[in-house]
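Mods, move this if it's the wrong board.
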Amino acid sequence: MPFSSLKDPVDLARAFAVIEAAWSDLKDTIPKDRWEAERTRLAYLVASFTPLALDEDDLKQNVLLQFRGRDHSS
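Not the wrong board. C-alpha cells:
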C-alpha cells in the first residue's frame, strides 16, 4: 500500500486529501482504461512527497508536476 509508510496522522490525512484533489484534476486527461494504473502511480507519488511537503497546496503542486513530467500514455 502506498500510504503504509506514513505514520503521522496529519501526513496521512494530507495524503488522502491531496490524492483526491490531484486525481480530480487529472482523471479527465487520462484514458479510462489507464485510470487504475495511473491512480496507483499518483498514490505512490503522493506518499513519497508527503513527508517533504510544506502543506497540502505544496504537496499537490509537486505531485502534479512530477506526474505530468512523465508521459502517462505508456
